[in-house]
Write a structure and sequence with these properties.
Number of helices of chain A: 3
Largest interface: A-B, 43 and 49 residues
Structural class of chain B: mainly alpha
Distance between the termini of chain A: 50 Å
Number of strands of chain B: 0
Helix content of chain B: over 70%
Shape of chain B: elongated
Largest sheet of chain A: none
Mean pLDDT of chain B: 85
Oligomer: heterodimer
Strand content of chain A: under 5%
Number of helices of chain B: 4
């Protein structure tokens, strides 16, 4: 059952990679990276169950936090574009 | 008796894992097939949260009542609350940069979208 979940998550990651390559705008690529990161968390958790090591869940939690922080920081940069000039508009 | 109890607690876990995997696959397929950024974000953000939630709840039922399920619950809570926030942040940033919706007819808002692209 965990193998089935792992295969489904791997297919989702492959489709996110295709969107990363194809996406005409940069926002499509950011979306694909965010999707890839979230699916990576699930894949690490499934791998932890498959190999019988529950320590992988710490890695999954840390990666979820890092992925979220990275994506929000990038979007904040997109919105304000420079630190000094446009902040607050 | 204990085997029947284990089976009774495993079958809902399998059902949740199957449903979560179906949602995750469908959401990624939607990201691939949708015509526009906003529709793609809709597919990705909704199914991301729901599929991850169902999958992690299925894993929690499979793991039983232990430290593993506590950690899985923490991951579930984090993804459940931050995935919609990241989705809204992306769409808000794209809209503030001038990206508009062009659902089916590619001539609608085409020049606005081309002008608003990030270098």
């Amino acid at each position: 059952m965990f193998i089935f979940a792992g295969i489904a998550v791997l297919c989702a990651m492959a489709m996110a990679l295709v969107r990363l390559v194809l996406g005409p705008t940069a926002y499509d690529r950011v979306l694909a990276v965010n999707l890839f990161g979230t699916k990576m968390v699930l894949l690490i958790a499934a791998m932890g169950f498959l190999t019988g090591r529950p320590d992988f869940l710490d890695i999954a939690l840390a990666y979820a936090i890092i992925n979220f922080m990275g994506c929000v920081a990038f979007m904040k940069f997109i919105r304000y574009w420079t630190r000094a000039e446009n902040a607050g508009k | 008796m204990t085997e029947a109890l284990n089976l009774a607690s495993l079958i809902p876990g399998w059902i949740l894992i199957l449903t979560g995997s179906g949602f995750i696959f469908t959401g990624a397929l939607g990201v691939l097939r949708m015509p526009d950024l906003y529709t793609r974000q809709h597919a990705a953000g909704l199914t991301d949260t729901l599929g991850s939630g169902l999958l992690l709840c299925g894993f929690m039922l499979q793991a039983g009542f232990s430290q593993t399920s506590l950690k899985l619950g923490l991951i579930f809570l984090f993804i459940y609350f931050t995935s919609p926030v990241a989705a809204h942040a992306l769409v808000n940033a794209a809209y503030s940069r001038g990206q508009r919706m062009q659902p089916v007819d590619n001539r609608v808002n085409a020049e606005e979208n081309a002008a608003s692209n990030m270098p």
